[in-house]
């Protein structure tokens, strides 16, 4: 696959897949979810299994008539029942991606994380990967974890890195460049995550993550701005050319995400990884475009 560097190319690439991915949407009741469904159907990028938990306020029947065979509706008594039903559909292979509609995120995740009938296998780590199309940056930039893991342990950092690299490869990146973020380039026991970074770099050198460059600690500017690395005298294939930003905690990651979205006017996409199928849990405050690009990212990742 040719490397995908922007969201328009990403969404367009879905049309080249041999078959369309099927998305199970839990409580597709809000206007942004309606926008995503109608756009995906019109652009022929996905088909849908809509599990309605009584929250829908738009005409699903009209969509079914306009796109026969591409939309199936399953009624559920409550949002929680809808979540359990949709998760079961994904578990049984009837859908490739799970997507949140107007259901509360906590209610959806309760079904996803159910130990007996959920989508997270025992021993696996669930994490969030975000894709960012930022003005002035020549390619998509990925960030982890901005939404799920508060203070990553070494094992969680390892999983975060693996998932982000896997998503990068699903978009045609042969050798992803991963920056391990901190406020300085110094390793210190005062900041335990920097010690974890040293272990991640050792594992990367030994081939644990395949063909990849992993370096840090470094700050965001050094990771993404070539001049910053040159001024600091840092020689690394990651400096100024990062594909992935690994954040030390959820506060820094989420602040970066919200800042890029609001002040940086970046286009965003995100999904949960580590589950048996990608899960799209866009925030209620996210735009329809962001929810659509999130769905496209998840569909493409599920094709790997």
UniProtKB/TrEMBL annotation:
It comes from Marseilla massiliensis. It comes from the Bacteria. Belongs to the phosphate acetyltransferase and butyryltransferase family. InterPro entries: P_Ac_Bu_trans, Phos_Acetyltrans/Butyryltrans, PTA_PTB. Keywords: Acyltransferase, Transferase. Residues 80-298 form the Phosphate acetyl/butaryl transferase domain. This is Phosphate butyryltransferase. GO terms for molecular function: acyltransferase activity.
């Amino acid at each position: 696959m040719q490397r995908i560097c922007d969201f328009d190319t990403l969404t367009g690439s879905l049309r080249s897949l041999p078959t369309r991915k099927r998305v199970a949407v839990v409580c597709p009741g809000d206007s942004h979810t309606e926008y995503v469904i109608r756009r995906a159907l019109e652009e022929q990028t996905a088909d849908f299994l809509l599990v309605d938990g009584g929250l829908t306020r738009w005409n699903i029947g009209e969509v079914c008539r306009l796109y026969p065979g591409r939309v199936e509706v399953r009624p559920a008594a409550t949002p929680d029942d809808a979540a359990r039903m949709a998760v079961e559909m994904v578990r049984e292979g009837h859908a490739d991606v799970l997507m949140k509609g107007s259901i509360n995120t906590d209610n959806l995740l309760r079904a996803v994380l159910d130990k007996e009938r959920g989508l997270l296998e025992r021993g696996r780590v669930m994490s969030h990967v975000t894709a960012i199309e930022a003005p002035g940056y020549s390619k998509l930039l990925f960030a982890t974890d901005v939404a799920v893991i508060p203070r990553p342990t070494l094992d969680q950092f390892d999983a975060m890195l693996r998932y982000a690299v896997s998503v990068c490869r699903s978009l045609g990146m042969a050798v992803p460049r991963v920056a391990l973020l901190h406020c300085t380039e110094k390793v210190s026991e005062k900041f335990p995550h920097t010690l974890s970074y040293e272990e991640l770099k050792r594992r990367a050198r030994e081939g644990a993550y395949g063909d990849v460059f992993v370096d840090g600690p470094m700050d965001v500017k050094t990771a993404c701005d070539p001049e910053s690395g040159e001024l600091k005298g840092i020689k690394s294939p990651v400096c100024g050319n990062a594909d992935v930003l690994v954040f030390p905690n959820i506060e820094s990651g989420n602040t970066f995400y919200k800042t890029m979205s609001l002040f940086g006017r970046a286009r965003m996409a995100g999904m949960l990884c580590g589950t048996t199928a990608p899960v799209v849990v866009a925030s209620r405050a996210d735009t329809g475009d962001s929810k659509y690009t999130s769905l496209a990212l998840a569909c493409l990742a599920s094709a790997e």
